[in-house]
C-alpha cells in the first residue's frame, strides 16, 4: 500500500462504502462499446477508458505518457526502483527522483547524473525512520550538456539505461542494483565529472584516476590513449565524438587494481532465471550479467549482493563489502551467482479438525452467507478483492464439515462477482478491466488507492481475484477452462506479475523487483526516498494464489512463478521488515520491526494514522494457508508478537483476529483461548471472518507449530509439530491420486482435488 490516501484506511474500514466514495469508486460506467472490447473466452476487457475515469496521471491529475526515447522498444515497466525516470509524477520535475540502486544512489539532472554512496544512516521522524539519504559525490555529464528531461532508453532485470540529451549532446548511463560501476556512453563533447567537494587524487594512471571525495573512493576510467584533465573540482576527458567511460565505487583505495580489469567490461543486460525442483524442495535462482568488452577481453564484473542473496549463495564471496539500507552487501566476481532456498509448501487451506465445533463453524458461515450484504458495500478493486478473499476462505471450511449447500452458495457468490468483473459488458456495468496500451497495463475500475492514476498495488488488489479464481477452480474445473474464464483470469494475474518475457502486453514481473527480493508498491516511485513497500504480506498472498492457480490449471509456468515469488519474498521479508538476522537495521534504531521498507531505509509507520496493531498487522494480512511462512521460525514469530504486546502494554485490541492468527504460529493454545473468551464480541478485520479465524486457531491448537525440518516433493504441503508428534498435510491439485513423499520417509496418499492429513 503506497498511496497517501491510505492514511484514511482505518476510518474507511468501518464503512467500505465510504472508502469507495473517497476513491471516486461509486461512478457507474456504461458498458464498453463492442468494438472496444477484447474477448478472452467468456471474459473481456475494454481498451477505452471508462467515462469519467482517470488513467496514469501526474500530481495535478493530468494524463502522463511514459518518458522513453525514440528507440525504446520494450514493454513499459512501472513499480521498480527506477520508475520515477519513466513516470513523471510532478510536472515541474522531468528528471525523476532519487534512485537507490545500492550500493550507489543517483539522481538525474540537466547537466548529468548525480552519483553518491549513502553509507551512513540517519534517524528521522523522532527515530521512527532510518534512512541512507542520497547525497551526490559528483555529477557525471558532458561538457555543456543541458538536457530538458531524463528518459529511459532501455532496461533489463535490475538495470536501467537513462538518457540525458539536449539535441547536441547525448549521455546514456547504465546503472543497476548491486553494480558498483556506472557505465557511460557519450557523444557531442568531452565527458565531465564535477565533484561536490575538492577531491583527493591518490592515483593517476593516464586514462584512469583514483580519487577520494566526501570519504568515498572512486576510480574514473576513460578509453586507452585518453587522459583526464583536472581543474579544481572538475575532471574532463575528451573521448572523441562518440566515446565511453566508467566509474567504480571502491571499498578502499587499495582495491583499485581489483576493479580496473572490469572497467571496460560494460554490463549490457542482467537476467534472473529460477528453477523449482519439487523432488528436492529447492528453488535455485541464478543472476547473470551480460557484458561487452569495450577494451581488452575481460568478461563479467563485480556484483554486490544483498544479505538475502549472499547468505544463501552457492557462489564464492570475495572479501569486498559495502553498506546499504538492507545491511552489509558482499561482493562476488564473475558473470553470475546462484542462490538456493528450501521451499516449504503453499497450502490452499488448512484442514478442519474433529475437535473443532462444527456446528459453530456452520453457524458462523451462515452469518456471512446470509448477511444483508455479504460484500459489505465493496465496489472497487481493493475492497471487492478483500471481500472475495474473505468469502473464498469459507468455501473449503464449509466443504470440510460437510456443509455442501453452504459451500455451493459461497461458490455462487464468488462466481457471480468474478464474472461481473471479468467482463466489460453488461447494463450499466461499473466493474470492468481496462487495458492501457500506452502503459502496457490492465486497470480494474472502479479503482482505488491510486491503482489507476499511479499504478499502485496491482499485486495487492489482484491477488484476491486470483485467490477467488483458484477457489472456484478447486471445486469447478469447467469454470476455469480455456473456453470460459481462464484466459481473463490469467490476464489479470499477468498484469501484476508476468512470468512470460515474450508477452508484449505486460512487462516481466511488474510488481516484483528480482534483485531486491521483494516488490515495490508505487507505480511511479515519485519520492525522495525512492520506492516503498508496505504490505509485504499482500504481495505474499498474490504469490501463494499464483502458485495454487497454476497447479490447479496445470500451468507449471504460473505455479513456479508463485513458488519463486513466495519463497524469495519470505526470505527477504523476515530480514528487511523484521530484522530477523539482526543486521538489517542500523545501530541505534530502537524498533525491531518496520511497517514500510523504503529504497533508502525503513519506517516504523504506515500510510495511514493507524494503531500499532495495524502497523504490525498490515504485514500479516490476509491470513490464509499461504501465511504459514510467518511461522517458519516459531521463536521469531513469538518475538514479533511479544514486541507488539510490549509496545502496547497489553494484548492487541484492534484487528484481534489477525494477531490471534499470528500468535497461533508460536503459541496456538493461548491464541485459541483468547478467541474463545472474546469470539462473540469482537469485530473481525474487514478481510477476515470469525469462521475462518476459529478454524485456523482450532487446527493449529491440535497440530502445533510449523516444522520446516521436513520437506515434501510437492509444492502444496505443510508439516506441523506438537511435542514429539508430527502432522503431515498435502493438497493434490490434479485429477489423479497423488502419493506425496516427505523428506523423513513419510508418505501420504492424497485423492484428486483433495487435502489429506496424516
Describe this structure in words.
There is one protein chain. With 758 residues, the chain is of the alpha+beta class. The chain is built from 16 helices and 36 strands. The strands form nine sheets. Strands 9-10-11-12-19-16-15-14 form an eight-stranded antiparallel β-sheet, with no helix packed on it. A seven-stranded antiparallel β-sheet has the order 3-4-5-8-13-18-17, with no helix packed on it. Strands 6-7-30-29-28 form a five-stranded antiparallel β-sheet, with no helix packed on it. Helix 5 packs antiparallel against helix 16, helix 7 packs across helix 8 and helix 15 runs antiparallel to helix 16. The radius of gyration is 26 Å and the shape is globular. The chain starts with 8 loop residues before the first helix and ends with a strand. 59% of the residues are buried. This is glucan endo-1,3-beta-D-glucosidase. GO terms for molecular function: endo-1,3(4)-beta-glucanase activity; glucan endo-1,3-beta-D-glucosidase activity. It catalyses: Hydrolysis of (1->3)-beta-D-glucosidic linkages in (1->3)-beta-D-glucans. Its EC number is 3.2.1.39. Keywords: Carbohydrate metabolism, Cell wall biogenesis/degradation, Glycosidase, Hydrolase, Polysaccharide degradation, Signal.
Amino acid at each position: 500500500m503506497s498511496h497517501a490516501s491510505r492514511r484514511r484506511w482505518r476510518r474507511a474500514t468501518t464503512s467500505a462504502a465510504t472508502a469507495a466514495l473517497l476513491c471516486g469508486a461509486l461512478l457507474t460506467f456504461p458498458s464498453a462499446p463492442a468494438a472496444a472490447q477484447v474477448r478472452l473466452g467468456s471474459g473481456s476487457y475494454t481498451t477505452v477508458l471508462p467515462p469519467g475515469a482517470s488513467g496514469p496521471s501526474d500530481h495535478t491529475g493530468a494524463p502522463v505518457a511514459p518518458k522513453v526515447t525514440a528507440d525504446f522498444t520494450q514493454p513499459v515497466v512501472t513499480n521498480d526502483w527506477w520508475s520515477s525516470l519513466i513516470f513523471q509524477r510532478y510536472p515541474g520535475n522531468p528528471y525523476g527522483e532519487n534512485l537507490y540502486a545500492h550500493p550507489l544512489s543517483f539522481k538525474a539532472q540537466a547537466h548529468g547524473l548525480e552519483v553518491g554512496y549513502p553509507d551512513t544512516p540517519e534517524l528521522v521522524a523522532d527515530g521512527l525512520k532510518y534512512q541512507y539519504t542520497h547525497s551526490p559525490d559528483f555529477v557525471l555529464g558532458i561538457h555543456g550538456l543541458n538536457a530538458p528531461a531524463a528518459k529511459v532508453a532501455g532496461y533489463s532485470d535490475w538495470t536501467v539505461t537513462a538518457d540525458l540529451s539536449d539535441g547536441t549532446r547525448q549521455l546514456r548511463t547504465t546503472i543497476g542494483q548491486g553494480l558498483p560501476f556506472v557505465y557511460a556512453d557519450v557523444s557531442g563533447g568531452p565527458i565531465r565529472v564535477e565533484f561536490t567537494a575538492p577531491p583527493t587524487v591518490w592515483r593517476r594512471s593516464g586514462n584512469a584516476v583514483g580519487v577520494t571525495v566526501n570519504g568515498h573512493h572512486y576510480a574514473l576510467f576513460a578509453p586507452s590513449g585518453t587522459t583526464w584533465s583536472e581543474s579544481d573540482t572538475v575532471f574532463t576527458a575528451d573521448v572523441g565524438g562518440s566515446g565511453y567511460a566508467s566509474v567504480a565505487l571502491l571499498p578502499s583505495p587499495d582495491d583499485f587494481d581489483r576493479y580496473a580489469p572490469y572497467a571496460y567490461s560494460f554490463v549490457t543486460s542482467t537476467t534472473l532465471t529460477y528453477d523449482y525442483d519439487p523432488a528436492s524442495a529447492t528453488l535455485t535462482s541464478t543472476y547473470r550479467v551480460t557484458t561487452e568488452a569495450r577494451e581488452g577481453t575481460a568478461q563479467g564484473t563485480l556484483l554486490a549482493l544483498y544479505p538475502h542473496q549472499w547468505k544463501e549463495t552457492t557462489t564464492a564471496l570475495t572479501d569486498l563489502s559495502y553498506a546499504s539500507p538492507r545491511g552489509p552487501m558482499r561482493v562476488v566476481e564473475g558473470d553470475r551467482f546462484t542462490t538456493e532456498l528450501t521451499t516449504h509448501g503453499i497450502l490452499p487451506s488448512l484442514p478442519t479438525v474433529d475437535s473443532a465445533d462444527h456446528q459453530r463453524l456452520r453457524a458462523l458461515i451462515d452469518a456471512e452467507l446470509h448477511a444483508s450484504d455479504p460484500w459489505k458495500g465493496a465496489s472497487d478493486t481493493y475492497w471487492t478483492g478483500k471481500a472475495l478473499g474473505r468469502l473464498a476462505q469459507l468455501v473449503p471450511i464449509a466443504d470440510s464439515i460437510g456443509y455442501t449447500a453452504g459451500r455451493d452458495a459461497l461458490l455462487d457468490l464468488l462466481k457471480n462477482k468474478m464474472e461481473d468483473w471479468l467482463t466489460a459488458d453488461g447494463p450499466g456495468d461499473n466493474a470492468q478491466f481496462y487495458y492501457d496500451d500506452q502503459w502496457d497495463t490492465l486497470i480494474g475500475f472502479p479503482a482505488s488507492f491510486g491503482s489507476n492514476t499511479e499504478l499502485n498495488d496491482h499485486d495487492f488488489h489482484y491477488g484476491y481475484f486470483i485467490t477467488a479464481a483458484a477457489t472456484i477452480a478447486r471445486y469447478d474445473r469447467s469454470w476455469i477452462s480455456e473456453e470460459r474464464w481462464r484466459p481473463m483470469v490469467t490476464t489479470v494475474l499477468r498484469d501484476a506479475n508476468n512470468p512470460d518475457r515474450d508477452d508484449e502486453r505486460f512487462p516481466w514481473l511488474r510488481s516484483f523487483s528480482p534483485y531486491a527480493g521483494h516488490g515495490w508498491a508505487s507505480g511511479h516511485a515519485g519520492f525522495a526516498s525512492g520506492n516503498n513497500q508496505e504490505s509485504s504480506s499482500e504481495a505474499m498472498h498474490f504469490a501463494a494464489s499464483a502458485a495454487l492457480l497454476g497447479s490447479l490449471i496445470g500451468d507449471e509456468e504460473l505455479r513456479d512463478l508463485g513458488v519463486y515469488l513466495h519463497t524469495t519474498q519470505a526470505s527477504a521479508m523476515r530480514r528487511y521488515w523484521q530484522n530477523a538476522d539482526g543486521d538489517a537495521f542500523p545501530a541505534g534504531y530502537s524498533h525491531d520491526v518496520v511497517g514500510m521498507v523504503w529504497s533508502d531505509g525503513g519506517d516504523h509507520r504506515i500510510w495511514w494514522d493507524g494503531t500499532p496493531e495495524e502497523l504490525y498487522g498490515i504485514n500479516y494480512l490476509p491470513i490464509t494457508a499461504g501465511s504459514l511462512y510467518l511461522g517458519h521460525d516459531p521463536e521469531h514469530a513469538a518475538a514479533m508478537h511479544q514486541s507488539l504486546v510490549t509496545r502496547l502494554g497489553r494484548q492487541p485490541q484492534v484487528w484481534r483476529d489477525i494477531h490471534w492468527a499470528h500468535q497461533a504460529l508460536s503459541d496456538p493454545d493461548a491464541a485459541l483461548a483468547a478467541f474463545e473468551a472474546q469470539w462473540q464480541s469482537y469485530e473481525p478485520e474487514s478481510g477476515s471472518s470469525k469462521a475462518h479465524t476459529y478454524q485456523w486457531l482450532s487446527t493449529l491448537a491440535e497440530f502445533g507449530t510449523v516444522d520446516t525440518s521436513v520437506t515434501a516433493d510437492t509444492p502444496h504441503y505443510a508439516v506441523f509439530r506438537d511435542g514429539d508428534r508430527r502432522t503431515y498435510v498435502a493438497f493434490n491439485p490434479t485429477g489423479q491420486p497423488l502419493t506425496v513423499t516427505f523428506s523423513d520417509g513419510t508418505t501420504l496418499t492424497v485423492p484428486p482435488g483433495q487435502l489429506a492429513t496424516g
